[in-house]
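@channel sequence for tomorrow's demo:
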Amino acid sequence: MILQDTNILTERELKKLKDHQYSSSCSSLLDPLMQKYWNWFVTLVPLWVAPNLITIVGLAINISTSLVLVWYCPTATERAPWWTTFSCALGLFIYQTLDAIDGKQARRTKTSSPLGELFDHGCDSLSTVFVSVASACAVRLGLYPGWMLFQCLCASTLFYCAHWQTYVSGTLTFGTIDVTEGQIVVMLVMLTSSVESFFNLDIWTSSLYFFSLNQLSTLFGGLCGLYSMFKTDGTIDKIFTGGAGKNGATVAGTSVLSPASPLFLLVVPACVIAYKSDQNIYHSHPIMYVLLFGLIAAKITNRLVVAHMCKGEISHRDAAMVAPLLLIINQYFNTFLPETFLLYISMIWVTVDLIWYCSKVCLEICNYLDVSLFTIPYTLTQPTGNGANSQNGNPAQSGGPVTRGRKKHSRN
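structure tokens (generated this afternoon):
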């Protein structure tokens, strides 16, 4: 429960996490091309910069630019100023770059550990929420509320299922069209919206056969996501046939279907509450609504990542689920409380719960591994003689305790 004094992670789970070894496979189309840029960019980062600091700076930029766009598009139906969508594209590019080099920085500084992997996935879960909302604003998808809800829930569901498959098989798999490709598509969408606004065009709402262009882009993205899940050797196939545990169980020895209930308790209430509301809670506050359920999705995804790395069971109780439960109970009793009021209360509750959970888990891991979250050991030694360090101006890097581990996408 939120703000509890007891530890979230048990001694056994912390030991399992310490022994955790990252495993991934990647067949991305664009990753090999981007590697050259990422390998060059990481050399510009000083050796005293902690990998987790790189990650959190990228996330802060990504969220900030997204919130600026949301400020100008409070219902996702407004045409935003051109610079807001341009800054979103730039912010996502910066996040993608920093997200890709934090693991390289960890290997440069010899500060790899499971903490970095966990921190990285946690930041990715939040980025997924804000990028999906920002992209809906950029194409004015709020004109079609059902499509907007579908897009945001689809983004969170796909991210959750990727880690569900990892919890089952022990290996995080990236397909031919995956994170890198998706982020670049979103950047192109943002730039297109920027051009639309700057030249006062009407691109996204123009009709193409029976759909508008923003509907078609959402449909295309959704179909690509569904294909990656249900194709042969896709996410669903690996969940049911790729169990790394005994008799095809998960890495924790539990049923491969155990992570299904948190996702079910997220998606079904999100749809029911939106379309059973007498006060049109979703249609009146679409951004707040999708952010609420997006943050709940981020929370349950983080718990799934922790369960995978600690080889622990999935808990089917979560304090964040109090929010949709409260909204459903209120509707059941003929909306005796204003739904807008409950929506804001739920948003505060979920936000505080997510921040508390992530902070407490990170602190528990830091204490157990005896490391810092945003700093790494670094000693600047004065070069002597005419050695290579003196000639090149490269300070010596001292060894230190392990603090970081991010080998995402098998990037080397």
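heads up for whoever presents: Strands lie at 24-26, 172-174, 207-208, 211-212.
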